[in-house]
Write a structure and sequence with these properties.
Elements: H1 3-13, H2 15-28, H3 36-48, E1 52-55, E2 64-70, E3 76-81, H4 112-132, E4 137-143, H5 153-158, E5 167-174, E6 183-184, E7 186-195, H6 211-225, E8 234-241, E9 253-262, H7 265-286, E10 289-298, H8 308-318, H9 325-335, H10 340-353, H11 359-362, E11 381-382, H12 388-392, E12 397-403, H13 414-419, H14 423-444, H15 447-461
Parallel strand pairs: 3-4, 3-5, 5-12, 6-11
Antiparallel strand pairs: 1-2, 2-4, 7-9, 7-10, 8-9
Helix pairs in contact: 1-4, 1-14, 2-3, 2-4, 4-14, 6-7, 8-14
């Protein structure tokens, strides 16, 4: 029996457990830092499989480390599980029209129920493989909540929990199958609080100093700033406190959240400093006071170029999930839920991805049945962010993207929530578990490659990980 066949057998043996776990987490649909039931479900499964447990790591109640030591315990094979849902994306399973679940606003619109359960399955299968084949290693699965919020991996990394891990293989639900060299950008967010002086807006406006005016002027300044930043950078904002609802009172307090993104951490920090200067200027113009507090920051993510070819080869060996005609029909139904303008954009995307094919023909069977090859020369960044980047600044880290939804599907959508509880999603999750497991057991037997991957990390981080968060920032458990 080949190593691939052994891995597939181990994954198949635990399939029912993983499917149930993914559905349980999907039903819990808990938001960032509130994933008590989801974390407990994963912990209970891993304890039953012989993993030791350290709960509440890095001062985060729903974060944990599960470990299983086999033989000498070296190397340490790492996995990263996520299990948080998103607000406003409630959707009934199996429904191809928008239909929220009664009684909840939350939904797994990024497929973290699949991500978490698939990673648990890979960790268990890797442990079993080591034991059955007389190999050495420690399987370390980190429960990392709040990826959709202020994150957790950067706090876990800052506290040194990743320091002993030799490599991470992880995955994420997607509409395509690939080990991509395209990076994810870094991000930093903060609350900007302005304080002024309240007054009657009609009879004594001259005595007032409006905090809301300061926030408005900050927005104007940042809008002008957008013209003078690099193309890959982004500036986002949202009001969290508009100073009240009475228009005849000069607002003496107002708070706005800002987030900035840029490919590299130093670019992000420079842009954030410019936003802070805009806020200072707004306070000066309105004779108000401003203070800010950094609440979140992720480093940029790029797949470790030493280990990425290993995972890419394994993914190519396994191939795409095996789709049935029923799966294709389900995907077609979901694809038809998008408006015409969105479908036009999806067709353009198909032209770029599959230049030798007719996009209309591609979308008649809208599930990716191939593998996009890894391109080591790729240097682009996509504009999303993930705290997996901070794991990659400490430990060699590679992510596989596996199709769990139709081609062109938008993440963070009600359609994605539905896919996350579908047979299509389950098939992608099981393929991901096979790919992570086989990549892990093969890499564990290549110590020279692991050392080369670690050298790459040291070159990237300058010799040590530096958290993008200031030391005063704690996990914002009830405040983010």
């Amino acid at each position: 029996m080949t190593d691939k066949e052994r891995v597939s057998l181990l994954v198949a043996e635990k399939k029912d457990m993983a499917v149930k776990l993914s559905k349980d987490i999907w039903n819990y649909a808990e938001l960032s830092y509130k994933e008590e039931k989801s974390a407990r479900a994963i912990i209970n499964v891993l304890k039953k499989e012989g993993f030791s447990m350290q709960e509440g790591i890095a001062e985060i109640p729903t974060a944990f480390l599960a470990k299983a030591v086999v033989g000498s315990g070296k190397p340490v094979i790492g996995f990263l599980a996520e299990y948080d849902a998103l607000d406003g994306l409630s959707q009934m399973a199996g429904q191809t029209e928008k239909c929220p679940v009664e009684g909840t606003r939350n939904g797994h619109g990024c497929g973290h129920n699949l991500l978490g359960a698939g990673t648990v399955l890979a960790a268990i299968a890797t442990k079993e493989y080591l034991e059955q084949n007389g190999l050495n290693g420690t399987v370390a699965l980190f429960g990392t909540p709040a990826e959709e919020g202020a994150g957790s991996k950067q706090f876990i990394a800052r506290d040194g929990w990743f320091d002993d891990v030799d490599f991470f293989y992880t995955w994420h639900p997607h509409s395509l199958n690939s080990v991509s060299a395209i990076g994810s950008v870094s991000i930093m967010g903060a609350n900007f609080r302005f304080s002024g002086t309240a007054s009657h807006a009609g009879s004594a406006p001259e005595q007032g100093r409006s905090a809301l005016d300061a926030v408005e002027l900050m927005n104007v300044g940042c809008n002008y700033l957008r013209e003078h930043i690099i193309d890959q950078a982004r500036i986002h904002y949202a009001y969290s406190d508009a100073g009240g609802t009475a228009p005849n009172v000069v607002q003496d307090h107002a708070t706005i959240k800002y987030e900035v993104r840029a490919p590299k951490v130093n670019q992000m920090q420079e842009l954030f400093a410019r936003v802070v200067n805009v806020a200072k200027g707004a306070a000066m113009m309105t004779d108000t006071k401003m203070e800010y507090e950094i609440t979140m920051a992720f480093s940029d993510y790029v797949a470790n170029r030493t280990l990425a070819p290993v995972m890419d080869a394994v993914l190519s060996e396994y191939g795409a999930p095996e789709w049935s005609e029923e799966d294709y029909e389900t995907a077609r139904k979901f694809l038809r839920t998008y408006p015409k303008t969105t479908l036009m954009g999806i067709k353009d995307e198909m032209k770029a991805l599959f230049p030798d094919s007719n996009p209309d023909e591609v979308l008649t069977r809208p599930l990716h049945d191939g593998i996009l090859p890894y391109d080591p020369k790729e240097t682009r960044y996509q504009s999303g962010s993930t705290d997996v980047g901070d794991a990659g600044y400490v430990v060699p880290t590679v992510t596989a993207y596996i199709a769990t939804a139709c081609l062109g599907n938008a993440g963070h959508s009600w359609q994605n929530t539905a896919f996350s509880a579908s047979e299509i999603g389950i098939k992608g999750m099981l393929r991901a578990a096979e790919v992570m497991t086989l990549s892990s057991v093969r890499t564990a037997q290549m110590p020279e490659l692991i050392e080369k991957a670690k050298r790459e990390v040291r070159e990237k981080n300058g010799g040590r990980y530096v958290c993008p968060l200031p030391d005063y920032t704690k996990p914002p458990i009830d405040t983010y």
